[in-house]
Amino acid sequence: MPGAIHAEGLVKEFGKVTAVAGVDLDVPEGQVLGLLGPNGAGKTTTVRLLTTLLRPTSGTATVAGHDVVRSPEKVRRAIGLSGQFAAVDDRLTGRENLRMVGELYGMRSRAARDRTSELLDQFDLNGAADRRSSTYSGGMRRRLDLAAALVVRPSVMFLDEPSAGLDPGSRLMLWEAIEKLAAEGTTLLLTTQYLEEADRLADNIAVVDRGQVIARGTPGQLKAQTGNQSIEMTVRDVARIEDATSLLLRFGKAKPTVDGDSGRLSVAVDGGANLLSEVIHELAATGIEIDDIGLRRPTLDEVFLSLTGGTPANSDEEKR
């Protein structure tokens, strides 16, 4: 059975420009998919196709079991969308913004009021509920925007750069709100410029470049794909650093990097935990004492760079 979000051969052309060039996606119900890619890769365009804001040139997609072309109204009723910029009315208070959304979706006044109170509490906005949203900080506006997308309890959420431009404290609060949604069974697709965000929140990641998915898997699987593991250690006695360097040369794929002042060494390896055990055994046998040793896996940043040769997208993602 197709997932809560499913796309096959999704294409979007703008004249001679192909923004999305045959994207395939499948997000099981209750899972979080992180969509990563460099500037102009097609992430935001893909989100707009899946949320019926754009019509695909070709290909098919279903969201919550509804075809995005044949049943766009049903798709819109089933989803929530939080874009790169908070879509709140500055003239209204936070409370009025949320109640208005509920009433636009046909909720009864009492139900809209109750849901508004619940969301204001959930997103820590009670203290500012009756202030105009024009007075809100960037983090508060983003939280209000996400709350507005949840008024009707959607089964599927699309988050396009949800924490773009937020300070670290506001970003952490937003991440916790997203994690709560995922724990409650909401299916989420999020695009993000923060690889730490994808690493923390996503069950699976799809890397998009030039309108196509070029890699997919769990964060752990993508990290393993690069094969760039390294052993890092700190020698207790810097006088033994040459001995330690010679030892690592026997195990590493390249010459170790050495910081003579701190006694820290690092070498790229193949072999994982088994090789680390061998190194520890040899260190003990030769009497080289260490303060710290570990097997370092590549970061998601390094995976991204190796796959795309570029940098993560920023908030100036394609505006098509």
UniProtKB/TrEMBL annotation:
Its EC number is 7.6.2.2. GO terms for molecular function: ABC-type xenobiotic transporter activity; ATP binding; ATP hydrolysis activity. PROSITE patterns: ABC_TRANSPORTER_1, ABC_TRANSPORTER_2. Keywords: Antibiotic resistance, ATP-binding, Cell membrane, Membrane, Nucleotide-binding, Translocase, Transport. Its main location: membrane. It is found in: Cell membrane. Residues 5-235 form the ABC transporter domain. One of its GO terms (biological process) is response to antibiotic. GO terms for cellular component: plasma membrane. It is a peripheral membrane protein. Pfam families: ABC_tran, DrrA1-3_C. SUPFAM superfamilies: P-loop containing nucleoside triphosphate hydrolases. Transmembrane segments: none annotated. It comes from the Bacteria. Belongs to the ABC transporter superfamily. Drug exporter-1 (DrugE1) (TC 3.A.1.105) family. NCBIfam families: drrA. This is ABC-type xenobiotic transporter. It comes from Streptantibioticus silvisoli.
